[in-house]
Amino acid sequence: MDSLVAIAGHGGKAGLPLDVLAGLTLIALAPFLLVMTTSFVRIVVVLSLVRSAIGASSLPPNTVLTGLALVLTFVIMTPTMQRVSHDALDPYAHGKITQTAMLDRAFAPLRGFMLRQTHAKDLTLFAHIAHAAPTSNAKQPPEVLLAAFVVGELRSAFAIGFALYLPFVAIDLAVASILMGLGMFMLSPPIVSLPCKLLLFVMVDGWALVCGGVVSSFR
Questions:
Q1: How far apart are CA 198 and CA 207, in angstroms?
Q2: How far apart are the C-alpha atoms of 153 and 16, rounded to whole Å?
């Protein structure tokens, strides 16, 4: 925060049209960057799949899941954001680098984080789609890296969600089999299985396990 305040008064040039335009552009792009260049996508998809697997379609509410995903995102991205502040924001705030250099330095830690989560085959695919010049994975254009990163995050989220779904599916099958064996055909299985799944989830401290597991899945 101190760095941002200092940038606002950088060299007494806060009123320059280009600085103001750049600042407004960054503010407008902030939500997009928060979602697409951080761990948010994987986390929010996994949490949504957990809620769907339990069978409580509206509990927890979307606001709670999004807030929890944001908190976990801040926890995971703290080292990266500290590097951005140290390498880019602080030097720019003290007038040591230009705005262009600041943006390049700020993107470097994010690029490193995204590359650690991205599969080489995804980079190759989107580089081919974008007709990008052959280069190493570490030097791929931002648009190629971003597309490959998001696709990789969705793949990882669905893989985690599949593993989380299995215990709940087993409970649904067990409850349905028991009810059929008892001849209770008129009783809907979800009415019985939902309390069982909630009890199991609470007993194993499910939310802590899910949050710990999804956080540890990042490299």
A1: 11
A2: 39
Q: Which amino acid is at 36?
A: M
Half-sphere exposure of 71 (CA within 13 A, CB side): 9
| Tens digit of each residue's pLDDT (9 = 90 or more) over 147-179 | 888 888 899 899 988 888 888 888 888 888 887
Question: Model pTM?
Answer: 0.78
> For the chain, what percentages of helix, strand and coil (3-state, to nearest 5) are there?
80, 0, 20
Enter the tokens of residue 73: 């995102």
160 neighbors 214 (Cβ within 8 angstroms): yes
Cα distance between residue 72 and residue 76, in whole Å: 6
Model pLDDT, residue 158: 92
For the residues of 49-69, what is the DSSP string, one character each? HHHHHHT-TTSS-HHHHHHHH
- CA separation, residue 34 to residues 38, 58, 69, 125 (Å): 6, 25, 11, 24
End-to-end CA distance of the chain: 27
